[in-house]
Design goal:
139 residues; mainly alpha; 6 helices
Length: 139
């Protein structure tokens, strides 16, 4: 798991660099901030999915489409965290957008690694939910 996390971290750093670069560019072009954060995030997320599937997790047991759907759910949670933290950072704390974006990284890393390890590139959300139902019924 340590080597897998290290590969995941490399993908994450490269994806984060892409995300920041695109956000910087979009902010410079005066794109509405929530749209700029979202556009940069989605672009970086697609690149990270491909790199995580082929290199970090090396997972081909489920189809790319099935994994992509699950990855989208995990990424949607991270997107919500990113937008909320950036908006709060900018509007409430008066931070520059890139500084606010940096604050969104730690919670996203935890959600992303475990969500992707066990759901996206593991057996999937349905299997995890079935296991959870089984555990709650036996209690």
């Amino acid at each position: 798991m340590i080597a897998q996390f290290a590969r995941f971290a490399v993908v994450g750093v490269l994806g984060t660099a892409l995300d920041f670069a695109l956000l910087w560019l979009l902010v410079r072009w005066r794109v509405w901030l929530p749209l700029a954060v979202s556009g940069a995030y989605v672009t970086a997320t697609v690149a990270q999915f491909v790199a995580n599937r082929h290199w970090a997790f090396r997972s081909f047991e489920r189809s790319a489409i099935a994994q992509g759907r699950t990855y989208a759910v995990v990424s949607a949670v991270n997107w919500g965290v990113a937008v909320a933290v950036v908006q709060i950072g900018v509007l409430v704390w008066g931070l520059p957008p890139l500084a606010a974006k940096a604050l969104s990284i730690p919670p996203s890393v935890a959600v992303s690694f475990f969500g992707n390890r066990y759901l996206t590139f593991g057996r999937g959300i349905r299997v995890a939910l079935d296991r959870l139902r089984t555990l709650t019924k036996s209690s």
